[in-house]
Amino acid sequence: MKVILFVMIVLLSFASCNTSKKNTIEAQKIDMKFVRFDSIIHSWKGIDKDTFELKVTEQIKAHGDFIEAFNTGIIKVGSAYNAMYYDNLHEFLNYPIYDEINVAIQQKLSNLEAEKHNMQLAFGRLKTLYPKNTTPAVYFFNGVFNQSIVIIENGIGVRIDKYLGADCLYYKQMDMQQFQIKKMYKEKIPTDVLIGYLQTEFENNFADANLLANMIHSGRIMYLTQMLMPETADTVLWGYTAKQF
After folding, report:
1. What are the tens digits of pLDDT across the range 108-128?
2. 3-class DSSP state of 208
3. In the chain, % of residues over pLDDT 90
């Protein structure tokens, strides 16, 4: 236990060191795609079935992999190719809680330009380090408190109803812990997206997936995250307050 604690302290100290922020990696110019899928799917609410099918067909051509992952893995309404898809999806869209959350998203997260910019820079730096890596598209969605991050081929989905701020009443009603709620604000979106992506791209390659191996791997991911996001405050990267640091 003492060895594990010592390694944890070393990793945290190393990853939070300011030296990486002095040696900023140049960000390549990349064409990173951002999709407000929360707005797209909300626009389908209340439309007739024929118009709905036309719009869904258009979106499947553009974002088919994500739509299938969203339908089957997040909101559980079944495939877009299912005959009951129109009915199942509209049942979901007519839940009172869906509308309430959508209003909150529009009030607090309608403008994500700063977050998009930070992701563009981070993934541009990642492209400098790993030129062969494909830059993922980012899909913002209202998941009504379901799965937070969704990884698909060449894309990543992020549930933005997770970032409504520490004063969001829904989080308190769900009996979430205060340390979790404190991290649920929109400035955390870029770091969570990047970390989710890196955890998929750079898998834990230790032969034994024990506690120590997982700690070291997490330390490597956080160190790379800090290298790619040098402008981001440590309090945002790590989710701690300045006093805790």
Report:
1. 999 999 999 999 999 999 999
2. coil
3. 60
Tell me the pTM.
Answer: 0.85
- Asked if 104 and 145 count as a contact pair (C-beta separation under 8 A), the reply is no
> DSSP string covering 140-166, please?
EE--TTS-SEEEETTEEEEEGGG-S-T
Distance of CA 202 to the CA centre of its chain: 17
State how far the Cα of 11 lies from the Cα of 201, in Å rounded to an integer. Answer: 21
Q: Is 76 helix (H, G, I), strand (E, B) or coil?
A: coil
Q: What is the spatial distance between Cα 84 and Cα 195, in angstroms, rounded to a whole number?
A: 36
Q: What angle do CA 92, 93, 98 make, to 5 degrees?
A: 95
| Phi, psi at 175, each rounded to 5° | 60, 35
More confident residue, 207 or 29: 29
Whether 123 and 141 have beta carbons less than 8 Å apart is answered as no
Query: Residue 162 has what pLDDT?
Result: 94
What distance, in Å, lies between the first and last C-alpha atoms of the chain? 23
| Residues in a beta bridge with 156 | 138, 151
d(CA 12, CA 223): 9
Distance CA 185, CA 84 (A): 36
**What phi and psi, each to the nearest 5 degrees, are found at residue 226?**
-65, -35
Q: Can you tell me which residue has the tokens 């009603």?
A: 173
The pLDDT of residue 219: 86
Percent of the residues in the chain that have a pLDDT greater than 70, as a whole number: 87
